[in-house]
Design goal:
Helix content is 34%, strand content 18%. It is α/β, with parallel strands linked by helices. The protein has two domains: 400 residues, L-arginine/glycine Amidinotransferase, Chain A; 30 residues, no CATH class. The protein has a three-stranded mixed β-sheet. A three-stranded mixed β-sheet has the order 3-4-5. The protein binds N~2~-(3-carboxypropanoyl)-L-arginine. The site of N~2~-(3-carboxypropanoyl)-L-arginine has 22 residues, from loops.
Length: 444
């Protein structure tokens, strides 16, 4: 591996105050299955904060990204709803409540979809690159990119080290889901970036039940923008059977870290050829664990999300898997994870965390974080107060406990008072994070 004083920071998206279950993501079985249920944004945000505390406690770098303001009244106005904020809300409530849901989704919490990132050790210009994801496939997610870009540019604003690109054009050709379809591996032979894609112009094999979100065209463009040498980028098709089984992103069935990759056999088409290709570039140090259908049926993997774990390098040098509680409760998923610790592999420990409220919308521990590998001087150049520490944690917990509701249904969304409440919470959160004015409603 390249010897640099670098560490990975996991930037978690803080759950927003409008977190609710709207069934907005077709092909995401948890989202579809929990549509209309009552949510508890306060509990969801506290679970997320507790996960950050836990991961930081392992000695792993932890950062925080604030929620996005919702409902996005700008989206509703672009869709033809006119008048004051109250008027827009009343009109959309009558005419198209599902659009109000889309405009109110707290989906920016799944920060793995915020962007794709390449560390300076891997890039041809020795800079850290960020490509915000356009999330073009789902309406409720397609509205995230402008603010994501602004936030990344604010935090990673030091142009000596960081380049924050624009998101790709939103088109059927270039639909991009960010780091949820990307894994970085590294051995003594260097780093390899694995980009999973689900559909391509002219591709013969494609899912038939559910949408494939990431396009090959997007992965190619992202790899170029990330300044990863062509020989270090591997683009591979997600198995259509996996997508049809509910694996809408490649990180639902696969996660990698440095020299270790764990995947389900339905993660990628012809996974054996993929592993051979990776070994060619990364050498014998690459350690790969595959779960087959017999050991862990696809439906069980999608329901319990063991591959959507955070796979982190510990200060001791070993690796920890931070899995969702649902993986512990699933016999085959738990046995698979325990096998990794028992066998000779870099994984030395497995932990289970409760992110149940996010899981009900299809977001496990890995969905909630964006990995950013930084060298010490790059980390020092970060702006804002976005690196986890105990005091920051306490302040965020206090804010969420005071400002977030513990019960939200679809009926609460058109309430102008609720909109004000959400703005107050976000204003306070961004003050705690010392990000200045980042939301339109904060600008003069
Ligand atoms: O895009 N769920 C998200 C879950 C994202 C998971 N991210 C990763 N795999 N990295 C999605 O489908 C559901 C919202 C709702 O139905 O209310 C949602 O958007």
């Amino acid at each position: 591996m390249v010897a640099v004083a670098a560490r990975e920071l996991n930037f978690d998206g803080l759950v927003g105050p409008t977190h609710h279950y709207a069934g907005l993501s077709s092909g995401n079985l948890a989202s579809e299955g929990h549509a209309g249920q009552i949510s508890n944004p306060r509990a969801a945000a506290l679970q997320g904060l507790e996960k950050m505390r836990f991961v930081a406690g392992l000695g792993v770098g932890q950062g925080i990204l604030p929620p996005q303001p919702r409902p996005d009244l700008g989206l509703l106005r672009r869709l033809g709803f006119e008048g004051s904020d109250g008027g827009v809300l009343a009109h959309v409530r009558r005419a198209a409540p599902e659009l109000l849901s889309a405009a109110s989704s707290a989906s920016a919490m799944w920060a793995a979809n915020a962007a794709t990132v390449s560390p300076s050790s891997d890039t041809t210009d020795a800079r850290v690159h960020f490509v915000p994801a356009n999330l073009a496939t789902m309406l409720h997610r397609s509205i995230e990119a402008p603010l994501t870009t602004r936030l990344l540019a604010r935090i990673f604003g030091d142009e000596r080290y960081f380049t924050v690109h624009d998101a790709l054009p939103s088109s059927d050709w270039t639909a991009d889901e960010g780091a949820a379809n990307h894994t970085r591996l590294a051995t003594e032979l260097g780093a390899v970036h694995l980009f999973g894609w689900g559909r391509a112009r002219g591709a013969k094999r494609r899912p038939t039940l559910h949408p494939a979100r990431q396009t090959r065209g997007a992965s190619e463009a992202v790899a170029r923008l990330l300044h990863v040498p062509q020989t270090r980028a591997v683009l591979w098709q997600q198995a259509p059977a996996g997508i049809d089984g509910g694996a809408f992103h490649s990180d639902v069935l696969c996660v990698g870290n440095d020299s270790f990759l764990m995947l389900h056999e339905r993660a990628f088409l012809d996974h054996e050829a993929l592993v051979a290709e990776l070994r060619l570039r990364l050498g014998g140090e690459l350690d790969v664990a595959v779960a087959n259908e017999r050991e862990l049926p696809l439906a069980e993997a999608v329901a319990s999300y063991p591959f959507n774990s955070e796979l982190v390098t510990l200060p001791s040098g070993g690796m920890a898997i931070v899995a969702p509680r649902e993986s512990e409760q699933s016999h085959p998923a738990r046995r698979f994870l325990e096998r990794l610790v028992a066998e000779p592999s870099p994984v030395t420990e497995v932990h289970y965390v409760d992110v149940n409220d996010s899981m009900h919308n299809g977001g496990g521990p890995a969905c909630l974080r964006l990995r950013v590998r930084l060298e010490t001087h790059e980390e020092r150049a970060l702006e804002g107060r976005v690196l986890w520490n105990g005091l920051l944690h306490d302040e965020l917990v206090a804010c969420v406990s005071r400002r977030y509701r513990d019960r939200v249904t679809l009926d609460d969304l058109p309430d102008a008072e609720f909109v004000d409440e959400c703005r107050t919470a976000l204003d306070e959160l961004t003050q705690i994070l010392r990000l200045g004015s980042v939301y339109d409603f904060q600008l003069p």
